[in-house]
Structures are given as C-alpha cells and as structure tokens.
Design a protein that fits this description.
The protein has ten helices and two strands. It is mainly alpha-helical and 280 residues long. The protein is rod-shaped, with a radius of gyration of 34 Å.
Length: 280
C-alpha cells in the first residue's frame, strides 16, 4: 500500500455513498412524491438510523485497522511492533472470543426487538424483503461492534488485572516478627511453571546461624534491593538486638547502615574501626 493510496475504510465509505445515490436515483419518483413522509419517518426513527450508521462505520474502521496490522499490507513499523508486542496465550484469546461471542449471541433477540421497535415508520416505506435485509444488517453490524467492544473491554480488564497482579497477589504483610523476609517466589513465569501462588520467603532466627549469599553483577540492586532491607529487618523484627560486623571496602554502604541504626535509636551503640566518620 503506497502513501498516496486511499484507505480501505474511505473506499468502502465512498462505495456506500455511491450505492445510496444510485438507489435514490432509481426510486426518484417515489421519493419526490413521498418526500414529507420520508423526512418524518427518518426523524421518528433517527435512533435506529444513527445506531446503524455508527455501527457500520466503526465496524469498517476497526476491521480495516486490524487487517492492516495482521495481514501486513501496511508494513511500516511491523518489525518493531512484533518485537515490542508481548506474547498473548492462545487460551486467553480463545476465552475472550468465546465470551464475547456468547454474550452477543444471547443478546441478538434483544437487538432484533430494539431494531423493530425503532424502525416502524421505515417499515412502511420499503418492501418486506428490503425491510428484512435492513433489520438483519442492523443486527449483524451492531453484533460485530458489540463483540469487538466486549473483546476490548475483556482485554483491558485482563491487562489491568495483570498489572495489579490480582490473580496471584503477594500477601500485604511483608514482615513477620522473629523472622527475616528474604524475598518472594512464584511471582514470575519460568520454564517450569506458570506464575501462581506467590508468597514471601521468610527464615526464623535460628536460620541466621548460617550464611546468606547475595550474588549479581554490578548495578543489579544487590545493596538497595536486598542487603539494606535485610539490615533494617535485623534491627526491627527480633527481640534480641543482633551484633553486626559490617565491612565496607567501597565506603558506600556504611552510611546507609548508620541511617538505619539512627532510625531505630541504636546509633549510639556503633563502634567504627578505621574511618571514624564512616563517610557521613
């Protein structure tokens, strides 16, 4: 598709206008004789007409937009979108399609009743055959739009649910008295299992007789994400205040520890070996 080509939606819109023009010319005599009644019927059933027009326009726009991106005749940026787009599980797509389809299917009787009740005047202007086609067009166009809208709403709900992690949320209480919270498990999907039943990993005081190894490359958040939170919990979660020997070759860790001890009212118990000011 070249930049100077018109969009499929615009082409279909022009085609529709041409079709309406030809139908008007074909029935010119009838229209001229019944002009006042036609205007009155259009005014009386304007809700039906507006709903039909809006549903058809949106159906055309949305479907052509989807075709542009999925079939690929509009190639610009398709590679970048494929790299940025997250993988959507097939069962999630099928679930949303089935849900939206079932809801619209059971709503079709109500849609038909709405169409008939709001097009009584129009039914007197055209033959029963054309009127039946008009009602069917209304049902199909509004059903398609309703399915697309419901699919989008379900996608938005699942997206918000995923962002808030409502389906598998961690307990709000992060710390336990007499225990050290190391982190969490079960939040992320791995090669072995889906993300499910996330929980905090805690160890009791006796487990502190062992060692905790925190590994990671430079700048991955070992200090800010784990070590400092461990130190804060050590001086907050336990009845017995522990004794800590802190070695800081770089001189960037002691300052944060002193702030934690000062917040807990324990700064007067610190003994500094080497740098008396502890770089603060």
């Amino acid at each position: 598709m070249r930049n100077d080509d018109i969009s499929p939606a615009l082409a279909l819109g022009i085609l529709g206008l041409v079709a309406v023009l030809f139908l008007g010319l074909q029935n010119y005599q009838f229209i001229s004789l019944n002009w006042r009644y036609i205007l009155s019927a259009l005014e009386t059933n304007k809700l039906f007409i507006v709903t039909l027009a809006v549903s058809i326009i949106f159906d055309v726009l949305i479907i052509t937009m989807i075709l542009e991106r999925t079939i690929g005749y509009k190639k610009q940026g398709s590679r970048l979108r494929s790299l940025k787009r997250g993988h959507v599980p097939l069962k999630e797509i099928i679930g949303k399609l089935v849900t939206s389809g079932v809801v619209v299917y059971f709503s079709s009787a109500g849609i038909r009743e709405f169409a008939i009740q709001n097009s009584i005047s129009i039914s007197k202007l055209i033959s029963a055959e054309y009127y039946g086609l008009l009602i069917d067009t209304f049902i199909y166009s509004t059903s398609i739009l309703g399915s697309i809208a419901l699919y989008g709403v379900l996608t938005l709900i699942l997206k918000i649910k995923s962002l808030l992690n409502l389906s598998a949320g961690l307990p709000l209480k992060t710390t336990v008295k007499g225990h050290l919270t190391l982190g969490s498990v079960g939040e992320e999907k791995s090669n072995f299992e889906d993300a499910q039943n996330p929980k905090w990993v805690v160890i009791p005081q006796k487990a502190l007789n062992g060692n905790i190894l925190v590994t990671g490359s430079i700048g991955t958040g070992k200090t800010q994400g784990t070590i400092l939170t461990y130190v804060d919990q050590l001086f907050k979660n336990f009845k017995q205040v522990p004794t800590a020997l802190i070695l800081d070759p770089k001189g960037s860790f002691i300052k944060n520890v002193v702030e934690i001890l000062d917040k807990r009212g324990l700064s007067d118990r610190c003994i500094f070996l080497g740098d008396v000011n502890a770089h603060v």
